[in-house]
Amino acid sequence: MDAAQQAAFRGANPGVPVSEADLLALCAGLVCALALVWCAWVVFHAYKNWGGGASPPGEAAGHALRAVFLTVVLLAVVTW
Known about the structure:
By secondary structure, the chain is an all-alpha fold. It is built from three helices and no strands. The model has no long low-confidence stretch (mean pLDDT about 90).
């Protein structure tokens, strides 16, 4: 952000001791937490479906690997 944008951010939030970097870190942390929860949910349900015979091992592994890959890519983009 340039100086004018930072001044506008501080002017819109008077008396709040939160900087734009703090807000960015909060949003990135929330996105990372939600991505990890989603990945765990997908892996758990893929394992549950595979164990119950609802899906073959290759399909369950494909879902789990796809979720892990997307989570890793999202975390790399968010933290870059």
